[in-house]
Amino acid sequence: MADEALFQFLHNEVIQYVNSAESGDTENGRCVSKLENMGFRVGQGLVERFTKDTARFKDELDVMKFICKDFWTCVFKKQIDNLRTNHQGIYVLQDNKFRLLNQLSAGKQYLDHAPKYLAFTCGLVRGGLSNLGVKSIVTAEVSVMPACKFQVMIQKM
Amino acid sequence: MSRQSNRSTDSKKMNSELFTLTYGALVTQLCKDYENDEEVNKQLEKMGYNIGVRLIEDFLARSSVGRCQDFRETADVIAKVAFKMYLGITPSVTNWSPAGDEFSLILESNPLVDFVELPDNHSTLIYSNLLCGVLRGALEMVQMAVDVRFAQDTLRGDNVTEIRMKFIKRIEENLPAGDE
């Protein structure tokens, strides 16, 4: 078992590295997509390991529930607080106390840095879903730290 | 009820695969970004240093380890307390130099390399070099300048993974003027 502090420091260091390589506003998007891609790869690997002994999922909603409960618990040691869907392929996962934002100030002070800290996790979710046969686009938004919402848009194959 | 008491050490434990895979993703990205392995090794060491500088705070706060009297005690704390706390392994401390300023940490298993195979064209990559940086950064914060490097690595076909640590000097604390 690794320690959680270790992952958080590593995660910060990864963000730091990706950002130092790019500079300027135009590059901001590129940073986020680089982090997202790293997360995607990690998400794929994680889901493979978590699901090797579980039963097959019934449907899309079942997969989403798995992400909200088991996957989130394994990675962030809590469940998603709220899952909403419009039943047309859009899901909103709300985490009221997101672990990777928890270290930052809870006010508005670092709000514009928040996207960097969410990109990797968006990739995690997308990678996880992709290995469960669900193609998606995952975006994140923060209005009040440390709560955040991940929006998952399912892409029809 | 203090905040400290309701945080069990167990809640600090997490899935180590996440850490291992994330580290793998980072090394992969570095290999893409840099031409040669030397450069990647250097970057990993640098990142490890940044982590170590912060990690020592977390470590001292949670382990209640005091100041070490000598380098031998330092070695013991690193192997038995720190490695156990953060990676869940206990390396053995061996190969002391006669002067007592150099030793080796032998890692039976290295959690960082759980799912790793080095391709042939990366023979000079020191995959876990982050660890060297972490050790160097952490010890620097407790006034010890040390030299840390990998002497052997199972990824490159050695039998064990060996981290060699050499004590260089004690860093003098510079008191601010008038703060005697």
How does the overall form of chain B come out from the CA principal axes? globular
Mean pLDDT of chain B: 85
Terminal Cα separation of chain A, in Å?
Answer: 37 Å
What is the share of helical residues of chain B? 40-55%
N- to C-terminal distance of chain B: 37 Å
User: What is the N-to-C order of secondary-structure elements of chain B (H for helix, E for strand)?
Assistant: EHHHEEHEE
* Largest interface, chains and sizes: A-B, 28 and 33 residues
The order of strands across the largest sheet of chain A is 2-3-5-4
What is the number of independent domains of chain A? Answer: 1
Look at the helices and sheets of chain A and give the structural class.
alpha+beta
Helix content of chain A: 40-55%
Provide the gyration radius of chain A in Å.
Answer: 15 Å
Q: Per the principal axes of the C-alpha atoms, what is the gross shape of chain A? A: globular
If helices are DSSP runs of H or I spanning 4 or more residues, what is the number of helices of chain B?
A: 4
Assembly type of the chains comes to heterodimer
Strand content of chain A: 15-25%
The CATH H-level superfamily of chain A is: Trafficking protein particle complex subunit 3
Name the helix and strand elements of chain A from N-terminus to C-terminus, one letter apiece: EHHHEEHEE
Structural class category of chain B: alpha+beta
Q: Based on the structure given, which CATH architecture of chain A is correct?
A: 2-Layer Sandwich
Function (chain B): May play a role in vesicular transport from endoplasmic reticulum to Golgi.
Keywords (chain B): Endoplasmic reticulum, ER-Golgi transport, Golgi apparatus, Lipoprotein, Palmitate, Transport
InterPro entries (chain B): Bet3 (IPR016721), NO_sig/Golgi_transp_ligand-bd (IPR024096), TRAPP_component (IPR007194)
GO biological process, one term (chain B): Golgi vesicle transport
